[in-house]
Amino acid sequence: MTYQAFYRAYRPQSFAEMSGQKHIKQTLQNALSSDKTTHAYLFSGPRGTGKTSTAKIFAKALNCEAGPAKEPCNTCEICTSITNGSNPDVLEFDAASHSRVEEMREVIEKVRFAPSNARYKVYIIDEVHMLSTSAFNALLKTLEEPPPHAVFVLATTEPHKIPLTIISRCQRFDFKRISQNDIVERMIQVLDDAGIAYDEKVLRLIAQASAGGMRDALSILDQVVSYSDGTMTVEDALFITGSIGSEAFVHIARALVDGDVNGALSQLDQLVMDGKDPVRLMEDLVTFFRDLLIMKHVPDAQEIVELADVTDEVKVLAERYSQERLYQSIQVATEMQQEMRFSNHAKIYVETALIRLSQLSTKPAAVSGDVSTISDEQVQKLERKIAQLEAQLNSGGAPVAEQPKRQRQRAQSSIKVPVGRIQEVLKSATKPAIQQIKSQWALILQQMQRSHAALLNDAEPVAASDSAFVLKFKYEIHCQMAIDNQTFSTSFPQVVEDVTGTLYEVLYTPEEQWMEIRSSFLATNQVSGSTDQLEDIEEQATQEDPLVSEATKLFGEEFVEIKED
Domain 180-241 class? Predict the structure, then answer.
C-alpha cells in the first residue's frame, strides 16, 4: 500500500476522535440518540476544522446497522463502505468542480429514489458556496420539501456567499478554529501511533503555524518528519514553517529596552538573510509583545502565551518593560504591520518600527486627571471658576456671563467655482434644455470609461442652456477630482456631444455652493427676470431634491405642492 499523508491516514472516524468542536458533537449526538435529526445541515467554518469529516461521521451514525447511534460502530458493512467511499447512498459532491445547474439537476433527480442498502441517502456538498445561482435555485425546492429518506449536509468556508433562502432551510453549525492544545494533543496521538519521537516545543511551533487548522497542522508535521533526520528539532520546524524562534525576539526586545538600535537592526538583518519574511516577522513581534504583557499579569501563563517561552530570562525581560511601553509597542508594531502590506519595501518598515520602538519612554504616561500632574495655571483657573459660582449663588441672579465662545466657522471651499458663468447659464436656462441632457444621462454614463463614470455616481445636471449646463456634485472631493483630471475634463464634453449632438460647456460645482448660487440668482432676478424663466429654474431645483422625488413617486405629481420658505 502506498504511503498516505498524516491528515488522510489519521482522519477521525468517530465523534470521539474529533478534536475540538464540542458544541457540535454534543448537538449532533443528542439528535441521533433521540431520533430528532433533520433533513438539511450547514457546516461553516475555517479550512481544516473538520467539516467534511464530521459530515461523514454523521452519515455513518445515521446509517449504522446498530443505529442511529451516538457513535458509528465502524465495523458493519455500511460503516465500512462509507469510510471507503464506496457506498452508493452516501454521495460526496464537490461544488467547486461541479457548479453548473445541469450537474445539480442530475443529482436532484436521483434524490426521490429510495436508498439501496442504507437507512438514509446522505448528500455531502463540499464548498457549496461555489454553486451557481441557477444551481442554488434548483437545490432550493428539494431542500424545502425533501423526501423522508434524504439528508443534505452543506459544507462551506464562506457562508456569506450562500443565499439566505438556502441558509434558512438548514440547521447551521459554525466550526471554530481548533485550539493549540487540542492540535498538540492530536499530533502526539499520531506520532505515538506511528512510533516517531517528538519534542513538544516542535509540536507547539507547528500548532501555532497552522492557525487553528488541524489539516494544516498534520500536513506541516508530515513535512517536518520527512525533513528531519530521525529526530525532529526546533530548527527543523522553524525552517519548514518559516517561523522565527523565541530567542530572536528576546534578543530584539532586550536591545530595544536597552536603547541598542544597532543590536536590534543587526538581528533583523540576520533574520532577513536567513530567508525570514519581514511581514511575518512583524506579526510575530506583535505576538511576542502580547505574550510579555500577559506574563506581567498572569502568574502561570504557560498555557496562554503563543510565542514566548516562559523562562526566567523572559520573565525578567517582561518586568523590565512597563505596561504602558508594551501597549505603545503593540500599537506601533500593529500600525507598521498594516502599512507594510501595501509596500514593496517591507524591510524598511520593520527597521523604522524598531527605531521607533527603541525611542519609547520607559516611564508610564501621565494619567489624565491625576492630582500630581495638575499645573499651577489649572489650579488658578479652577479657583476663578469656584469664585464665579459662589458669586452666582450669593446674588441669586443669572449666571455670571463668560466670554462668549468663538463660533467655529465652516472651512472655506478650495474649489474655484465660476459663479459668474453659472449665473449666465441660469439667465438663459430652459426646461427643454435640461430635460434633453437628463433624458440622455444614463446613456452618457454608459459611453464613458468606468473610472470616469465612477466620478459621476453622485453627480447630476441641474441647469442647462442651449450651449452649456451646470453639473452638481454631492461631494466636494469628487468635484475637485473631476476638475483636476485633465483627461476627464477633455473626454466628458466629447461624450456628451456624441450622445446629444451638441457640444456643451460643462460647469462644475459642489452641492453647497450650487444651492447658494441658485438662491442668490432667484432672489436677485425675482423682479427683473422673466417669470417663465424663473419658474423653470425653480422647477429644476425641486427635481433634484431627493425628498421631493420620493414624495412624487409615492403620491404622484398632482398631490405634491412645493413651497419655498
Answer: mainly alpha
